[in-house]
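Hi team,

Filling in the usual template for the complex we talked about on Friday. All components are listed, including any nucleic acid strands or ligand strings, so the model treats them as one assembly.

SUBMITTER: L.P.
PURPOSE: interface mapping
COMPONENTS: three
RESIDUES: 609
SEQUENCES:
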Amino acid sequence: MLTSPLFLEIVLFPGLLSIAIIGALLGWLERKVTARVQLRIGPLYASPAGGILQMFADLIKLSFKELFVPENSDAFFFIMAPTTGLVLGAALVGLIPFAPGLQIANIEVGLPAFLAIITLSPTLILLAGWSANSKFPFIGGLRALFQQTAYEIPLWLSALGVIMMAGTMNLAQIVDAQTGGWYILPQALGAFIFLVTSVAEMERLPFDLPEAESEIMMGWQAEYPGVLFLAAQGPGFVKLYAFSALFSVMYLGGFLGPSFLPSLFWMLLKTLIVIVLIMLLRSTFPRVRLDQLLRAGWTTLLTLAILNIGITYLLVVGLPTL
Amino acid sequence: MTDLLFLAFAAVTIGAAILAIEARDLVYGAAALGIAFLGVAGLFFLLDAAYVGWFQIAVYIGAVVVLILFTVMLVGPKKGETPLELKRVSLLAAMLVSLLLGMTGALANATAFPGPDACGSGCDLALFSTSLLKNYGVPLEFMSLVMAAAVIGALALSKTDRGQ
Amino acid sequence: MVAQGIPEIGSYIAFLFVSTVALVIILRLFVSPRDPRPTPEKKKPFESGQIAAGPGRTRFIIQYYPYLLMFVVYDVIAMFLFAWGLNLRALGASGSIPVLVFIVVLLIPLGYALHLANHRENW
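RESULT (copied from the run log):
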C-alpha cells in the first residue's frame, strides 16, 4: 500500500509535499513580483538565489513562536477553522489532472466537486472570525462571508459555460475535449468572469477587504499567532495554485501541448502564467469597497454570466444547425 | 465494506444531529449540523449519487449552515445568558415518532410511488439529466416559481426594515 | 458501489486532515515554547494599542443579509443548470425548453434585485 501509485501521488505530487513546497515558493514569488513592480528587490538574503528560501525561513521562525489563544475566545474553532481551511485548499489540488493519469481523484463530477469544496470556505472564515471574539477579526469574517457568497454564483455559472461546451463534468475529459481548440476563445466572457470571481474567492487584491492590512489589521487573521498564522495565510496561496491550475484545465487546454515536451511541463507552465497574471493584478488595482464589491458581484457579474450561458447555448446548439 | 461505511456515515449523521440539538452553545450546534450534512453527503456517495452528494455539500453545508450560523451569531444567546430551555421529550413520544418513521420508510421501500421512467440503478449522469428534463419538466417549472417567490420575498422583507 | 473517484478523494482528504491535525498537535506539544510568566496584556484582543472596550462581536453587517438568502436559492438553481448543461448536445433546442423557461422565470427576481440595488441608500 505504501508504494501504490495513489499513495505516492497523495504524498509527493500533486499532493502533500509538493503543495507545501509550491505554496511556500508562491509566497516568495508574490513578494518578488510585487517588489519588482514597485521597483524594489524583495527578498534577497535567505538563500543561494534571490531569497528563494525566504518562506521556508519564515516557516521555521513561525513554528518556534508560542501558540496561544486570546482570552474569551473559542479555542476549538480558533484552531480548527484555519486548519480545515488548509485541508480544503489542499483537497482542491487533488481534483486537478496535471498530466494524463496524474490526478489524485478522477471524479466523474470533478468540476462541481471543486466548486463545492470552495463553497465551504465562507463558513470556515466566518467561524474563524467569530471565534477570536475581537472586533477586527469579526468584521473581517463578516466581510469575507458576504464577499465570497456574492462571487460564488458567477463562479458556478461561468464554469457552466465550459460544461456546456465539453459535455462532461470530468476534468480530465474537459482537457481532452479541447484538443480541437482551447476554450478561451469561445468562452472569452466566461473566462474573464471566472478569473475575476476566483480572485474574489481567494481574497486577493483588489478584493482583499476581509484582510485589509491598512484598515482592519489583517481582518479575520489578526489574532492568529505562530503556526496558526501560516494556517490562515497558507490556504490563500494553495487556492491560488488550485484556481490557476483549474483555469488552465478549463480554458487553456490543461496538459495539452506540442509533444516535444512532457504534458506535465505544459500544465505547469500555463498554471504559472495564470498565477503571475493574478499576482500582477495585486499591484495594479486599488481595493474595492464592500458595497461596490457586492453590487458588482450580484448585478454586473451575474448578468454577464447569464449572458455567457446564452452565448454558449447558441454556440453549442445554434451553430451546428446553421 | 460498504455496510461498514454505511454504519459509519449513519452514526456520524445521527450523532451530529443529536449534538446539534443538545449543544449549549448554538454556534456549536450549527457546526454539528454541518457535520450531520456531511454524513448525509457520505450516504449519497454510497448510493452512487456523487452529483447529488457534492451539491449536498455545496448547498447545505456551504449555504444553509452559513445562513444559520450568521443568524445564530446575530440573535443567539450571548455567553453568560441562559440558553433556551427545551422540554424533555418523553420516552413514549420518542417511541411513537420512531414507529411512525419506520412505517414511512417501509412504505417508501415498497415502491408505493411509481414515477414515470424513474432513473434507477445503472443511471449515469446523462441519463439522469435527460430524464429530469423530459419527464419532470413541469415540476421543474413549479420549483422555479417557488424559488423566484422565495427570492422576491427575501428582497422585499429586507426593504421594509429600512422604512424610514 | 461507490462512484468513480470518490474513494480516492475521500482517502486523500482524510490523510490531509489527519496529518495537518497531527502536525499542529506535535508543534503545540514539542516545538512551540511556553511562556512561564505571561503578562495579562498578552492575551487581550489586538486593537493597535488601545485597550479593547466592549464585547468583541459587535458590529454586525446586517444590511447585506438578503444577499445570503439569494445565495442559497441560486446555489440550488446552479444544480439544475449543471444537470442541463451536461447534456446540452444530446438535448438540443427542443429538450432545453423547460430549462429556458426556468431561467427566464428566475431572471425576474434578479431584475428586482438590480432595481433595488440602484437605490443605494437601502444597501
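MY TAKE: The first helix of chain B runs from residue 2 to 22. Helices of chain B lie at 2-22, 26-46, 50-75, 91-109, 125-135, 137-161.

Thanks, L.
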